[in-house]
Structure formats: C-alpha cells, structure tokens
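Late entry, evening session. Most of the bench is empty. Finally got around to the prediction I had been postponing all week. Sequence below, unchanged from the version circulated by S.P.
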Amino acid sequence: MKLTILVADDETLECDAFEFFAMQSGIECNCIKVKNGKEAVEKAREIRPQLIILDIQMPVMNGLEAAEEIRKFLPEVMIVFLTAWGRFDFAQKALRLKANDYLVKPIEQEGVTNLLKKCTEKLKNESQKDSTGSELLNNAKIQNATAKLKEVILKGNTEEVLQNEQKLLESIYSSFSDNAQSSAAISNVITILNYSIGKEIPFLEPPDVNSKNLSYLETQLANFCLSAVKAALQDKKDKYERIFSLIFQYIETHYMEELDTENLCEKFSLHPGYFPQLFRKYSDTTFIEYLTKIRLFHAAKYLKEGNSVKEAANKSGFQDTNYFSKVFRKHFNCSPSEYPNQ
C-alpha cells in the first residue's frame, strides 16, 4: 500500500526533512508539501491523502484551524501535528479535533518511521473492516430494505419511514446473530444513506457511526432518518426556508468573523444574484442590517460583562471602533461607554 502524505509547514527545511525520513523508512509513500494551513485545506480536498502532517504555527491559517476545516470533508483522515513547543497548550483543542498523534521538532528518523508504520496498520485494519461491511451489505434483504427506507425518506412520509426503519433493523438482525456483524451492518447502512440522501437533501447533520454499540447505532439511524424526512418535508414546502435557517444559525455562531454574501453563497450553494432578495424574504431586512444587529446584541453583552469599548467592538466583529460607536449610539440611543450604566 502506497501512502499519500500531505505535509504543511512554512519552514521548507522541515518539509524536506520529513520527506527524506519518510523515504528512508522503507514504507512506500508520496509526499506533497505546502506552506500554510489554507494551502493544506485546498490540497487535502484535491488529493484526499491518507496522512496529513500539520505544523501548529503557520501563516494565513494555523494547523489547528486547518485541521478543523479538513475534518469537515475528511472526518476519518489521520492528522498529526508538528510542534516545537515545550508546553502543549494546543492539546485540548487537538484532542477535540481527533488528532491521531504529534511529532516534536526537530523530527527524527525513528519518530517518522514509527508514525508511518502506525498509519499503514490503521489503514490495513480499516480496509479489512470495509471489506467485511461490503460483504454484509451483499445481503439482498438488507439492500432492498435500505433502498425502500431511502425512498420513503425522500417522499417525506414520516409514518412509513419509522415502519421501514424497523424493517431494515429486522432484516439485519435476522441475517446476523453476531452483535459485531450487526453493528458493522448498521454503521455501513447509515453511511450509505447519509451519502445517497445527502445528494438530494443537502446540509444534513452527519450521523456518528464511529461506535460498535448496537443501541447507540440504532439511535443514530433513527435520528438521521427523522431529521432527513423532516428536511425533505421542509424542502417540498419551501426549498430555501431550511437553508436560510441554517444561514441564520451560521451567522449567530460566526458573527465575530469576516462575513460577506460571497462566502455565504459559496458555503450554502446559492446564486449571488438571488441572495439579497432571498435574504430579505426570510429575515425582513438586508444582510448588512441583520449582521450589524447580531453584532450589536453581542457587543452590548460584552460591555455589560465589563469589557472595554474596543474589546467589545473587536469581539463582536467590528474592526473600526469609531464606526462601532456610531452604529451603537444609533441603535441603543447612548454611547457604548454609557451603556453598562443604563
């Protein structure tokens, strides 16, 4: 098995050193090198590597930010962080991002070789698991039950969805007496449904299938089916209502970032020419007015918590303190500095 490895580090010597040690490891591999986190995200989307090496500190986008983006489209890829830090201040976030390992600079031959061996072993085990899952799904009863469940989900019939979900589980349990095989079958069925239904109903919350617990997987299947049929019904009624509900949620959690209609259209697959009209339809205001109102709400909260005017402006996404003060006064009829005493 030939490994495709993506290495991201703004220090060319570190990238070259990793590639050299990888070539000396005795494991067949191909290293693609980039200089920052943004390039890493773009290249990962393009080449789909099995192993990604990310330096923590990089320009444009750091390793943790890049890992967070990559996990959205390659949730199971093996990610390893490079760091020269003595203290692992990033550890908590790295664990949340499911970091598989880390290497401390300067890297050495032994560390790279052990890492590549671990990676090839992991891929080998996953390949065997996938093969088993494919064999399980060769069962005609399970295939037919899965296809029927997908059909009624897309039709938006909630009652039939619940009935067919139970029939699918019955076909799995009647085919396999072993709990491990049943778990693998349910996990594979959920993955197939998520992929195939996602083509028809975009922006569904991906289910968690990284478990061998039957009860947990049953719950994941049920939750996915119910959320998918609910989304199907919403989209039949109004194909944009659900998308704009997600857009409003996204703005609420990313208001402090640099947001514009262009990146929202790209993220939610909307035509820029129709976006202003659609946004006004579902929010009764313009995008700029809506975003400003959200930012002002949070700025007021930060001021009440004791933040300075500049801190409240920066935390809520205003880059210009003078502009912030102007729109704040217009909205609240007082200056930001006066607001905590109101």
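Two things to note before I forget:
The chain has a mean pLDDT of 86.
Strands lie at 3-8, 29-34, 51-55, 78-83, 101-104.
Will write this up properly tomorrow.
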